[in-house]
Amino acid sequence: MEKFYKTEYNPESATLFLKLADEVQNLVQKNGWNLERKFNKHYCGFKAGFFNAFGLKWMSSKTMCFFFKLSEAEAKKTGFKITKYENHWKEAYVYVDPAATKVQDLLPLFEAAYAKLAGK
Fold first, then answer.
1. Nearest 10 degrees: Cα torsion 14, 4, 24, 75
2. Which residues contact 84 (CB under 8 A, 6 or more apart)?
3. Which domains does the chain have, with CATH numbers?
4. Which end of the chain has the smaller Cβ count within 10 Å, N or C?
5. Taking 70 as the threshold, does the pLDDT of residue 20 lie above it?
6. pTM, whole model, 2 decimals?
7. In angstroms, rounded to a whole number, what is the distance separating the alpha carbons of residues 47 and 36?
């Protein structure tokens, strides 16, 4: 995947994308969440079967965001400020600031999206 992303997207952004995907994978394992990481052309999703709980998505060749499969109300309930809400996909987006975004800071959103998918 690394070679593909570095060819299709900005190479520096691709490096950050893969680093963040690894950090999310570590968070999933640390919490014992039953999710599988899947890469494709436009995003890296963390899935239970067919359904994504959350992931990291390309918005342009340099810009990426985390997405969380939550309703807008559910996302707002976490107290975390989302950047955008996409009604069509029912996803809350938090754009990545390469200098400031930390996976751990988004924990309330990760927890809420996993709990929703797991039916908790």
1. 80
2. 65, 92, 93, 95
3. 2-118 (3.90.1150.30)
4. C
5. yes
6. 0.95
7. 5
